[in-house]
Amino acid sequence: MLGPMSTDQPTAWVTIDLDAIASNVASLKERAGDAAVMAVVKGDAYGHGLVPSARAALRGGATWLGVAQMAEALELRAAGVDAPLLTWLHAPGVNFAPAVREGIDIGVPAVWEIEAVAQAARDEGRTARVQLKADTGLARNGAYGKDWDLLRDAAARLQAEGVIDVTGVFTHFAYADSPQHPTVLQQQELFRERVADAERAGLKPDVRHMSNSAATLTTPSAAWDMVRPGLSVYGLTPVPDLGDAASFGLRPAMTMAARATVVKRVPAGQGVSYGHTYVTPRETTLVDVPAGYADGVPRAASAVGPVAIEGKRFTVAGRVCMDQFVVDVGDLPVEAGAEIVLFGPGDHGEPTAQDWADAVGTISYEIVTRISSRLPRVYVGEGA
Ligand SMILES: *Cc1c(COP(=O)(O)O)cnc(C)c1O
């Protein structure tokens, strides 16, 4: 058991195993065969911390990094990460000049955007790197139907002008987590047409890519030149019904823990936390855990969230509050300062992020990504 809190021991924290990230990428690379790996580090690397996670992924063999928002791409460049980088989610009004200056690939789904990128390139006196994003059936952010033709024509014209270089063509699956779903083949077929169409228009993309984690793990035919996994980089399975993390050679990188603030003995019949939705069935020990929904512990975990104390499993008693929740540990001897593990790799009896997702009815993506940046990240492994 760890000692009582001191100023250099955080109350609640997440530990990030950088070696797990590197080895997960190595596993993904092996599955991808000849295809390169773009590690997706959007959303602060799914809550794991952008820059350290990106460096660990590169150490594991990723040769590209991908983010949704340009600010994260610029943050990586500012930290000295010079690997090829793709950013793919922008709204009108965004200033593309910094991305053009930093040689960041810009994923474009629409004519307004390729025109704005081209203008930034003219202003900067540089050629912008552009990747065309085709909508092959997700009906989300790519160029759909006839909009693809307009985007392809604009790309060919701007490339001839010398202001852009089309470095890639990409798309995204709707049903990669159900590999037998008919759209998985249909999207591959339409993507093949879009790529051929771009090439007929004189564009010569180096990287043609469509596979997120689920496709990387279950649909090798979709690997093309590069795969684009996110969740699996962090050691979580995107297809829990088809295989757990270990079965795919993945190890969860994030462990979330907190130190008990107060431990108390209460009689039978004591209501616990707001609204007294839990009432002690007998005399018991209650442990106050200093992590709540401000830290990213879902309030939906009230009465169902699993935790481990000294390797033994307990469940959140009553409601999760903003900064804390309570656990009924029965007669287990626990002292203030004891470590409570919310989730981790699962090899010391602790729950996993997948267990939390199952308990609250969501996906592990949301559990790790929403862990608040107010919680200190403690990095372990090479490069920590
Ligand atoms: C988030 C995202 C990915 C990674 O998806 P995972 O399911 O986490 O592997 C890949 N490509 C695009 C366009 C994305 O938005």
TrEMBL record:
This is Alanine racemase. Coiled coil: none annotated. Residues 253-380 form the Alanine racemase C-terminal domain. Substrate binds at residues 140, 322. Its cofactor is pyridoxal 5'-phosphate. HAMAP family: Ala_racemase. It holds the Pfam family Ala_racemase_N. Keywords: Isomerase, Pyridoxal phosphate. The keyword Manganese does not apply. The keyword 4Fe-4S does not apply. InterPro entries: Ala_racemase (IPR000821), Ala_racemase/Decarboxylase_C (IPR009006), Ala_racemase_C (IPR011079), Ala_racemase_N (IPR001608), Ala_racemase_pyridoxalP-BS (IPR020622), PLP-binding_barrel (IPR029066).
